[in-house]
Amino acid sequence: MKILAMDTSSAIATVAVGDENKILGEYTVAGERAHSQIIMPMLEELLSRCNISINDIDVFAVALGPGSFTGLRIGIAAMKTFAKSLNKKIIGVSSLDEVAANFTLEDKFICPIFDARRCDVYNAVYKNGEKIVSDRICHIDTVLLEMADKEVIFAGDAAIKYKEKILSANNPKWQIAPIHLTSQSASSLIYIAQKRAENGDYDDDDILPIYIRPSQAEREYMEIHGENSL
Question: 205 pLDDT band (50/70/90 cuts)?
Fold first, then answer.
């Protein structure tokens, strides 16, 4: 079974292809160019280097967010189009699950945090491979307070943004993930998708992004019409 994975939920664009035994190839780029400009050339180059046709792919795996609204739409639309046009399976994965998968052998609490601006973070919490706090948005101080008495590994771009705040707590139970494990990676998506595929756990081709927070346009609409917004 060959799985193609893509994540465009953050400033990082990452694609990978793998099978039951190994990751066959992976490209990851963090840059200023828009995902709409680079993701398809990256994918084409990856498949060419691996000598694999898009028709050889059995399962398409894609990050659903939370993350960049525009980035998410690009990745999800591409993978849904591939799956539907080729009549193949698709699996959508939380980007928080994706980062947590980098630490499957750890027995500490895994706490990925993504920057949601205005001192908010997208967050979930994991222990021994199980998700114990679902995807949410909350203030960074809320997360740190909840984790105060726990042995924790913080990961994600907000772990870098709030590095000084985390370190200034002088909590000996806390760690910040090393640079090669703190970000989303398509190879981690493949790991999750492989486990789900083994159980026949696929998604419909109408999968939607995990936004959590309304878009700026939606927030402005709610403010104009007097509705509450996050």
Answer: confident
